[in-house]
Amino acid sequence: MKIASPLSCLALAGSLALAMPSGDLENVLKRMDDAAAKFRTTQANFTWTQYNKVIDEASETQQGKIYFRHAGKEIQMAAEISQPSLKLVIFSEGKIQIYQPRIEQVDVYDASAHRDEFESFLVLGFGGGGEEMLKSFDVKYLGSEKVNGVETAKLDLTPKSEKVKQNFSHIVLWIDPQRGLSVQQQLFEASGDYRLAKYTDIQVNQKISDDKFKLKTPTKTKILNH
To answer: pTM for the complete prediction?
Structure first.
């Protein structure tokens, strides 16, 4: 994950694949809508692996735990990156905060300046419904595929926003149709590099402490606003 790009911290559709019956896609999106209507919280373990286009090998792998919850009209996100080094990422109250304890620094990004991007990616597969997805992406149904023992629906998403396309040309999601949640994501950057995100031990609508969405740092921590 590149600290310089707030989109890379987030940490989560319209045209149909001609070879696939439209009913399959419609069914997946309907299940996502049903899950979104009941959504309160989600938490999961994650592995984010960045791949280099030139050598097609992993250049960085991060592991940790991620949390989502409805708070008023917004969905908040908190990611605790434990490997290779401790890092905390929080999206709450209209801003993204990235805390790196090792260098005692917090980078703060104003989400209002990147509204389209944040709304598109924050809820991607976690709390966002199929109807909402269609507003931001053109979607193709790529069939079913088993991921970690779960039979998933594989979707290919192309952003409608040119601003979003500057960061990610397209995204592949593996959706668990029973829960309407993403268990795997592949985000292709404009450069051709991509990030593969895998989510396991997904828990839905369990109580999450408020502390997960509040950043607590030592008084000497450096704050950088972007």
So the answer is: 0.83
Phi, psi of 121 (to 5 degrees): -95, -25
Span 155-167, average pLDDT: 88
As a whole number of angstroms, the distance between CA 217 and CA 101 comes to 8
6/108 Cα distance (integer angstroms)? 9
Tokens read off for 90 = 């929080």
Q: State the pLDDT confidence band at 92, using cuts at 50, 70 and 90.
A: confident
75 pLDDT tier (thresholds 50, 70, 90): confident
pLDDT at residue 117 is higher than 60: yes
- Residue by residue, DSSP assigns 10-37 as -----PPPTTS-HHHHHHHHHHHHHHHH
Q: How far apart are CA 103 and CA 222, in angstroms?
A: 9
Residue 195: exposure state from Cβ atoms within 10 A (0-12, 13-18, ≥19): buried
Closest among 11, 123, 1, 2 to 78, alpha carbons compared: 11
pLDDT at residue 186, rounded to an integer: 93
Q: Which residues pair with 171 in a beta bridge?
A: 157, 187
The domains found in the chain, sorted by start residue, are 6-216 (2.50.20.10)
Which residue is it, tokens 């950043």?
215
Q: How are beta strands 105-110 and 222-225 bridged, if at all?
A: parallel
Number of H helices, E strands in the chain: 4, 12
